[in-house]
Amino acid sequence: MGRWVYPAALPDGRSVLLMKVLMSNVCENNCLYCVNRRGNDRPVLSFAPDELASLFMKMFYANLVQGLFLSSAIFKSVRRTMDRMLATVELLRYRYRFQGYIHLKVLPGAGISQLERAARLADRVSVNLEAPSASRLSKIAPQKRFSEELLSRIRLLSRLIKQANHGKRYGPKGQTTQFVVGAAGESDTEILSVSKNLYDKLDLSRIYFSAFQPARGTPLEGLKPTPLLREHRLYQADFLFRRYGFSMEEIGFTEEGNLPLGKDPKTIWAEGHPEFFPVEVNTAPKELLMRVPGFGPLTVKRILHIRTEHRIRSLDQLKRMGAVTRNALGYVLLDGHLPGKPSSSQLDIWQSEPVSFAVTRNTCSFL
Ligand code: SF4
Predict the structure, then answer these.
(1) Is the same domain home to 95 and 205?
(2) Order of strands across the sheet with 15-22?
(3) Is the pLDDT assigned to residue 361 strictly greater than 60?
(4) Are residues 293 and 205 both part of a single domain?
(5) What crossing angle do the helices spanning 228-244 and 188-202 adopt, rounded to 10°?
(6) Are both 184 and 325 inside the same structural domain?
(7) Ligand 1 atom closest to 141 (CA)
(8) Distance 110 CA to ligand 1 centre (A)
(9) pLDDT tens per residue, range 56-81
(10) Which domain does 320 fall in, by range?
């Protein structure tokens, strides 16, 4: 039971326990990384819609969960499975009058009327792209069609969400997607180019990156696992897009098109742009403060507020505002003074030419 319950942050910032469950783990597809792929020997389980809806409500009334994340393997056909998932959600909404959070996974190639039903019923919907291009996807999920079954569904959901009448009780507040990282030999540049386009052009709310970990009994069992640090760096770059206004061209990549693992992408950008630093915390505009390593959006908000009342003169003050001061050392002035003792590498920054690092341009044009 415990493996079905996961803590999650909702779009409005609340934290809830979600029942995360598959309608069925019996699949027609044979994605090479997945334990639920066709023919894989394992215990199987499928729910009927009323069975799953009633189980969820029991857990809800027992205060074990507050919301539902419903996904599924493709049991017999996409249409049939999607109908059963939608029937489950309809039972929850209309028979049990459940008004809480529901995240509904939309299966590849789901019908247009099914997408419309999903958009009416769920708080959040998602289609997993899994890979950044058709050719990469064919290496790990040969039966899924990138443009026709996945991207087209994301596009349509984006339109439905825009049209959604937010006065209605239900209806998605956004959609998300997910990439399996490292199984198809793709680079971070490929993943982030597509991600940036999804945010900019199709208004995705969030993109999730899942470091590939080989599962026993799958064709990719022998492949090396993707380091979790790579996943972490992708989330940091993604955060720079969403919260700091970075463009794709401002992210530094290695020659191979990957994010360097040794340093976070914001620090790499700052090291490559000594012309912007050090910034005077008491007068710098918000956009420049947001570029300082160790300053997050909340810290910057606090700085902007506090400096209207008094000058910021010490690292302790910055620390109390949430700054990671060891990262900010060398990049800021406090009342005209360089605080603390910058590391020798930080001092080098001010004495050197801008560091050149490989930047791969966004070549993704299909969105
Ligand atoms: S469609 Fe989903 S459940 Fe089926 S094999 Fe692929 S990843 Fe696994």
Answers:
(1) yes
(2) 5-9, 15-22, 67-71, 101-105, 124-126, 174-181, 206-211
(3) no
(4) no
(5) 30
(6) no
(7) 6
(8) 14
(9) 999 999 999 999 999 999 999 999 99
(10) 266-351
**334 and 209 in one domain?**
no
- Residue 244 domain-assigned? no
Q: Does the C-beta of 205 come closer than 6 Å to ligand 1? A: no
Give Cα 165 distance to the centre of its chain.
25
With a CB cutoff of 8 Å and minimum separation 6, the contacts of 364 are: 132, 190, 193, 194, 197
- Chain segment 243-292, per-residue pLDDT in tens: 999 999 999 999 999 999 999 999 999 999 999 999 999 999 999 999 99
Q: What is the atom index within ligand 1 of the atom nearest the CA of 28?
A: 4
- Indicate if ligand 1 lies below 6 Å from the C-beta of 73: yes
Token couple for 137: 């996807």
Regarding the beta carbon of 332 and ligand 1, being less than 6 Å apart is answered no
Residue 65 within a domain:
yes
Q: Ligand 1: does its nearest atom lie under 6 Å from the Cβ of 323?
A: no
Look at residue 236 and tell me whether its pLDDT is greater than 60. Answer: yes
Residue 154 in domain: yes
Ligand 1 atom with least separation from CA of 25 = 3
Does 106 share its domain with 214? Answer: yes
